[in-house]
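Page 37, top half.
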Amino acid sequence: MRFPVTRDPGNFSEVIELDLRDVDYIETHQTGFVVFHTKDEVFYPVVPKLSILEKHLEDLGFLRLDRTNLSNIEKIRYYDEERSLVFFNDKISKSSKFTTVSSSMKKMLKNRLARKSGRNGNH
């Protein structure tokens, strides 16, 4: 099994997929961080916080649309500007998945979607 880790407790460095078969032991450090020890190095599991994921997933097309979500821009199928919602289904229904867009992100999202639709015709 592979586990996403970094070389620093704040998860600011590059994400590495650590093969758990290479781990000698795992401990909780006195600072409260979980630490994976291999023969020569120590690693810290990626903490599943949006702020950490935001930094590492930006290059994969994820954008923080408001304080509660990171959305994959390539998966957005419809942007309802009036209600500040993005949808991930081609046909919108009561069961469609959606998330919210903060007022501060509306303009940036609109620009990103315009660039995307210029590439593949979706919006």
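Page 37, bottom half:
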Amino acid sequence: MITNTTTKFFWATIQKNFSFGISKEKVLLLGSLMFFIACHNKQNLNLVSLKTPTGWGYVITNNGKIIIKQTVIPVISENKSFYTEEEALKVGNLVLQKLKADLSPTVTRNELIVLAIKT
């Protein structure tokens, strides 16, 4: 009985068995394409104003699903809606910009002052 005593490097065996015209460039291109598809941010964020019984609010959706529904002015201690649609959209745009920049969507009192939101 004769046994094969030569050891072959694993990668050399793989290359020999699977070398059917695939170059390193093609493998690199395919890997890069798969990485891009996997990491692609598929956010489709939209902002819409919302009429409430006491004023205005806003809704932010991602691919048709509601992710934020804000019917009251954030940060203040009272439950008051925005007085105008423009005020609601100003704060909504601020939150939308934060979400697109992967930041926390929280709003501070100073940001309300800068945006001239009546509280």
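Margin note: The helical segments are 10-17, 24-39, 85-100, 109-114.
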